[in-house]
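We append the chain.
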Amino acid sequence: MFNLKQFTIMKKILLTSFIALGICANAQCEAITTFPTTWNFEGTTGGNLPNCWTTIQNGDYNLWNVWTADGSYGTTNGTKLLNNAVDAGKTGSAWAFTRPFALTAGKTYSVKFTSLANNSSNNLVLAVGFGPNAVEAGMNIIGTDNTNTLAHEMKTYMFSPTTSGTYYLGFDVYCTSGNATQSSILVDDVVVDEAILAVSDINGKSKITAYPNPVKDILKLSDIKGVKSISVTDMSGRQVKNLAPSNEINLSNLKAGNYVISLIMENGSLQNINIIKQ
């Protein structure tokens, strides 16, 4: 039997151990400040999620997990991907949230990843958002895709917080109408980075300019050579347009305010142009 002195000593040892474990756990989940940050999921045990990632479900959808590929759906046998499998006839949605990031107000960030589906008859939508908490409420959607192909397809979305603080990125799968068969959305090679501002194009020319600025309806670009895609983001970080390269961008349906035109170049670089919509 323990006497009072032994019990007190043991209590202090246990308390110290719990505190140490808590500090260790918190350290693992501290906000990320280093960019770029990459997840390829290879170091994650199949069926789990990377450290400090979380998943929630709404309705009947399954939770996200890391799946070890078996060579089907155009994947390489043994590689690992983030997976959400939706059973036939189910309704709802499911979110997967990353470890938190420490982001700076007004700075533009990018998230790149590849995604694919396991069948071409799915009605699933993959949405990406960011917000101050790892919950659906408060997530600012920065991009959606309902053309999930049976081959790896690269996606890039930009976002910019209005206040400095801690934010989470979230991947959401939901359905536009019922699926007749089981369907999966697979995500891989997630890269979160600070956007590179004012990048010259691949031929070393001056950076692309946009005019008139302020603009009322049609924004014109001085050049689109080397541009892969164009996105328009509002000041909350929400993507309001995602476009193919064009010398003219129709902004007539947007409210008056400040926006960021992001030009994603074929060489992987990025140019952001701040504009004012009248």
